[in-house]
Amino acid sequence: MFSIQQLGYSLNLKFAPVIIVFAYLGPVAGLITGSIPLLARLYIGGNWYPDVLGWTFVMICFTVMHLYISRITPIKRVLILSGIYVSIYIIFGSIFHKIKDNPSVHFEYLLFVVLGVIIATFLIESYVKLYRLNNKLSYMYKKVEESETNYRLIAENTLDLILVIDKENSIRYLSPSHQFVLGYEESELVGIGLSTLIHLDDVCMIKNTLNEMLENKKSQSFEFRFQHKNGDWIELESRCMPVKGEDQSMKHIVIISRDITERKKSEEILLQSEKLAIVGELAAGVAHEIRNPLTTIKGFVQLYKKEHNSDEYSDLILGEMERIEMITSELLSLGKPQAIHLKRMNIRELIENTLDLLSPQGIMNDIQFILSVEESPIFITCEKNQLKQVFLNVIKNAIEAMNNGGKIHINLRKSADGKCIITFQDQGCGIPEELLPRLGEPFYTLKEKGTGLGLMICHKIIKQHKGSITYQSIVNEGTLIEISIPLAI
Ligand code: ADP
Ligand code: MG
C-alpha cells in the first residue's frame, strides 16, 4: 500500500511505520510491524539476499538501541532510529553496489521514508498533545463542578445568611437562606441598597463599621436589625469581610449573618427571671422583718380594744392587719427555701383533705364541690403540704370568682402517657383570653383585696413536681384549670 513504482524501483514508505512503532511502542511491536515489509519483500522475490540481510541488521540495531534510548522522549527516539536506518541503508547499498547504479532513486527513497516518519511523528505528537489537553480540560471542568457543588451545598443548606455586596452597598448575591429567615425571594433583593432594609437606628453604625473595615482591611462584627418581609424586625449578628479583586483593590464585601432574635428573647427572659428571684428573696426578707413588729402591734391593738371598748376602729385596724399578715405569709412561702419531703401519696386523699378545709367557705358562698374520681387509686410522689397549698389556692380562686354560688367540678384521672390529671371547673366570672398568659405573674391580680401571688406559688410548686398547669376560660361561663403531675412509679 505504501509503494510507488518508479523506473522499475519501488519507492515505498514501508519502513516509516516500522521506525515509528519501534520508537513509540518498543521492540516487540516494532518486530511484528517489521515482519510485514520483510514478507512483502520475500513475496516479490528476485535478489532478496541483500535486502533480508539489511532488514535483519536493522532489526538487531533497533532492538539493541532501544535498550539505550528507552528513557528519552519519543521524538528523539524517532530521530535516532531514522538516522540509524539511513546509515545502515547507505552502508549496505554501498557494500552491495546498489546505490552506485541509480543514486537519485535511492536518495529519493530515503527522503521519502524520512519525510514519512517526520509527518507521522508530527501527527502523533499533535494527537497526543490534543488528547492530553482534552483530558486536562475535562479534569478541570470536573473539579470546578465539584467545588461549585460543594459551595452551593454549603450556601443553600445553611441557615446562616450569606450576602455579597459591592462597594456601593448594593446586594450582588444572597444565599437561599434569606427566603427562610427573612422571607425575601432572591430576585427581590438583588441590586437593592442594603440600607433600605436596615433599621434606621442601625444604618449609621453599619456604615461606620463597613468604612472601618475598608480602611483596616480586616473583618468586623456587628449586630443589627433587618426587616422581615412581613415587617417584623429580625436581630442579626453579622461578620463582614472585604474581598479583594485581582488588582488587589476591594471588589466586594461578604457579610455572614445569623438570626439571634430567639437568643435575645431568652436572654431577656433569663434576666427577667433572675430579677424575679432577687425580688422574691428581697420580698421574703422584708416580709419576715414586717411580721415581728406586726405581731407586737396586733397584740397592743387587741389590748387597746379590750380596755377602751372601741370596736369600730380597732376592728378596722385588726382587719387590715390580717390582710398584711396574709400578704407577708404568702411572700414568705415564695422566697423561703423549703425543705421538701417527697412522699408517695394517694392524690384523692389530698384533694378530699383540701375540700374539707374549704367546706365552710363553700357553704358560706353557696358553692357545692363535686368530686369525681377514677375507681383505681392514683398515686403520685409529692410534698403533701405544698400540693395542698396549690389545690387551696386554685379552689379559693374559683370560689372568689363565683359571686352567685354554683358548682365546682373536680375531676381526677390518669392519662395515657403516665400522668395524673386534676381538673377544676368553676362557673365563675371567667378570665378574658388576652389575660390568660399573665396568670402566674407575681402581683398580677384583678381583685381589690388580692395579692396576685397565689397562682405564682402554684406555678412554682407544680414546676418543682415536674408537672404543668394550663387554663381555659370563657368569660361569664367559667374557668377550667388543668394540673398534670407525673404518676408515682
Ligand atoms: P389573687 O387571688 O390574690 O388575685 P392569684 O394569683 O391567685 O391572685 O390569681 C390571679 C388572678 O387570676 C386573680 O386576680 C383572678 O383575676 C384570676 N383568676 C385566677 N383564678 C381564677 C378563676 N378560677 N376564675 C376567674 N379568675 C381567676
Ligand atoms: Mg388567689
Write the layout of secondary structure elements.
Elements (H helix, E strand, L loop, with lengths): L2 E4 L2 E4 L2 H11 L1 H18 L4 H21 L4 H22 L7 H55 L3 E6 L4 E4 L2 H6 L3 H4 L10 H17 L3 E8 L5 E12 L5 E10 L1 H48 L2 H25 L7 E4 H18 L2 E7 L5 E4 L1 H18 L4 E9 L4 E7 L28 H11 L3 E7 L3 E9 L3
Parallel strand pairs: 9-11
Antiparallel strand pairs: 1-2, 3-4, 3-7, 5-6, 6-7, 8-10, 11-12, 12-14, 13-14
Helix pairs in contact: 1-2, 1-4, 1-5, 2-3, 3-4, 4-5, 9-10, 11-12, 12-13
Bound molecules: adenosine-5'-diphosphate and magnesium ion.
- What is the end-to-end distance? 100 Å
Radius of gyration: 51 Å
CATH superfamily of the largest domain: Histidine kinase-like ATPase, C-terminal domain
The average pLDDT score comes to: 87
Small ligands present = adenosine-5'-diphosphate, magnesium ion
Helix content: 55-70%
Strand content: 15-25%
- Count of separate DSSP helical elements: 13
CATH architecture of the largest domain: 2-Layer Sandwich
- Tally of separate domains: 4
Q: Profile the largest sheet.
A: 5 strands, antiparallel
Q: How many distinct beta strands?
A: 14
CATH class of the largest domain: Alpha Beta
Sequence of strands across the biggest β-sheet? 4-3-7-6-5
One letter per element, helices H and strands E, the order comes to: EEHHHHHEEHHHEEEHHEHEEHEEHEE
> Low-confidence parts, pLDDT < 50 over ≥5 residues?
none
Could you tell me the CATH topology label of the largest domain. Answer: Heat Shock Protein 90
